[in-house]
Amino acid sequence: MDLHVGDRCECKPIRGLIGTGFYCVQVGAMVRRMGLPFAESNNPEELNKLANETWITCLLFSRTCCMLVSEDLEEPVAIEDEMQGQYAVVFDALTGLADPPCEDRGAIFGIFRQLTRGPPRMDDVIQPGKQLIAAGYALYGAATTLMFSIGDGLHGFTLDPSLNEFILTHENIKVPYTGHQYSVNEGRTVLYDERTREMLQALKSQPSLDGKKRQLRYVGSLVADVHRTIMYGGVYMYPQNKNNPMGQVKLLYEAAPIAFLVANGGGQALTGLDPILELVPTSIHDRVPVFFGSEDDTNFCTGFYRASKPIDDPMFTLRRTASIIEYSKNSILDDDDVEEDGILCAHLPQVG
Questions:
Q1: How far apart are CA 67 and CA 122, in angstroms?
Q2: Mean of the pLDDT values across residues 331-346?
Q3: Residue 71: exposure state from Cβ atoms within 10 A (0-12, 13-18, ≥19)
Q4: SS (H, E, C) the chain
Q5: Which end of the chain has fewer CB atoms at under 10 Å, N or C?
Q6: Residue 47 phi/psi, 5° resolution?
Q7: What pLDDT digit, counting tens, does each position of 225-282 carry?
Q8: What integer pLDDT is reported at residue 35 of this predicted model?
Q9: What gap in Å lies between CA 125 and CA 27, rounded to an integer?
Q10: Phi, psi of 46 (to 5 degrees)
Q11: Distance of CA 89 to CAs 45, 59, 126, 226, 342, Å?
């Protein structure tokens, strides 16, 4: 299995690591067969276990890893002796809704360089997201799509089944500066604090910077919702609530890799107050609130968690109204120009 990244990937060990895209193909095939008589498993828990075992086996035999951290394991997997490499890989092997449609499922991963010498230690994975050297996510559906970055921009790859290889199909994807879609679980509104409820109300009443009325788009699958946000702009959020006061999204292997991708696409990734890429985990399963997406929309939402909220500024409305007018003059896309098909993973923005 090959991942064609061109000349940007100059480090041979990294080529060997990301060349093991076989696990994405294997897990994607298992997800698509779910519900069919010959499926490996029709039980979501068993499928998660199979996906996790596939990732661990493939990464282990790549001989490029020193430590693996999985969402499905309480403790990291240390790799020593002749199998040891120099990279720590953190991943969620199968994330998303438990049942089909399969386009709501995917995987998230991040790659750190080993900090210590000799046998792997916990310090090799307890690193802030800004020290990631690569990250990506996969989406499973009509096409298996891989969004990937090694720190030089955000790039999209598509699996060519005839070659059984991932091919670079979309280079230097940019997160729009603004968008009119927001993604949040409003069913939890009663659990949100006053700041979050006020922010959600402002999203409904205030137009986006392109002058359009905002629309709620929420699948309930982290990768699918983030992917749509990257393509069309807007903001994805999972704020803290009474049931999850520290947030719900896992920092090390979910929030940090996605923040790395969004930042490399020119977007923003915040907890509400802090940049996600600056956070140092205290344990491998730490959770954080997250706000991913367009710079303007993310800053608007997170402004409600600061001492001075944007709508309390008497000049905010005046400045934003002028910005909306100016932005609308330069806008070339209408709602009718953007097709929202149901197969999120197969639809990537065309880069001219």
A1: 9
A2: 44
A3: buried
A4: CCECCHHHCCCHHHHHHHCCCHHHHHHHHHHHHCCCCCCCCCCHHHHHHHHHHHHHHHHHHCCCEEEEEECCCCCCEECCHHHCCCEEEEEEEEEECCCCCHHHEEEEEEEEECCCCCCCCHHHCCCCHHHEEEEEEEEECCCCEEEEECCCCEEEEEEECCCCEEEEEEEEECCCCCCCEEECCHHHHHHCCHHHHHHHHHHHHCCCCCCCCCEECCCCCHHHHHHHHHHHCCEEEECCCCCCCCCCEEHHHHHHHHHHHHHHCCCEEECCCCEHHHCCCCCCCCEECEEEECHHHHHHHHHHHCCCCHHHCCCHHHHHHHHHHHHHHHCCCCHHHCCCCCCHHHCCCCCC
A5: C
A6: -65, -40
A7: 999 999 899 999 999 999 999 999 999 999 999 999 999 999 999 999 899 999 999 9
A8: 57
A9: 24
A10: -65, -35
A11: 22, 8, 11, 21, 31
Contact of 79 with 88, CB cutoff 8 Å: no
Position 101 pLDDT exceeds 80: no
Contact 286, 249 (CB under 8 A): no
Each residue's pLDDT tens digit, 301-318: 999 998 766 666 655 655
Look up residue 331 and give its amino acid: S
What is the pTM for the complete model shown? Answer: 0.85
Relative orientation angle of helices 44-61 and 22-33, to the nearest 10 degrees: 170
- pLDDT(89) > 80: yes
